[in-house]
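User: Predict structure, ligand heme C.
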Amino acid sequence: MSRRITAVFLGSLIFSASLFAQSATFVDNVLVIPKATIGETAYSLELGLVINDNNYDFSVLAAAEIPFTNTDGASIFSEQVLRVPTVEVGGTNYSLNLALISADPILFRLSSFAEVISDPIASSLEQATTLYTNSLETQVVQTLCIVCHVQGGAAANADLLFERASETSKATNLSAFRNYLNGSAAKRTQILSKVTGVSHDGGAQLAEGSASYTNLAAFLQHLVDHGATN
Ligand code: HEC
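Assistant: Predicted complex:
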């Protein structure tokens, strides 16, 4: 496998990846695996998600060999399966099994996944995700904001763009809010005033005190509590 992988990371990135081997992340359809081991060889990997029919396939976007120390927290490749112990997707932690279905080019396919139960007190991000899923994605974003805040829409040039309802839209749109906020309470206030029609070309979308406004305000507060996107 190593021969086929092109090392594209800069030396400094390799260095930091090995120093701060943390768990995998999934952002903008890229699965970043700081440490994947095959026997006693370690790599950092970036895998890109491609949906083929109903399969979740992952191709290698970037890979670099890193010094092998141990397999703590690592994704382990053996018997044609890459096992990712934990990755956070939309506030929930999952373990994934990715089966190698092609070696040239390298292609993995999601063969199974399971929720990893974390601490009982939900984190701010988990609370934000629950609120968003249950009360905002459909009721507010897909019903109101998407009319303009979408590619080709009246707000196409705004910094807050959403994706129309799809299998991935909930996660993508939650990320859009997270990126726009970037942990800033001032940005939260700005969103809340825009939606009530204050200096908003989109006019008043939500009435202050309405259920949706209250949910949006609470959701944004959880994101501020969670802190900057990282
Ligand atoms: C009828 C069209 C329309 C709708 C519906 C609409 N907006 Fe907007 N929105 C705009 C336009 C146009 C802009 C860019 C000009 C401005 O800032 O007012 C904008 C800007 C914004 C901005 C500032 C973005 C930036 O670049 O900093 C935020 C935040 C925002 N809207 C939130 C929302 C939310 C949340 C919803 C749904 C509840 C929504 N808007 C619904 C048209 C709309």
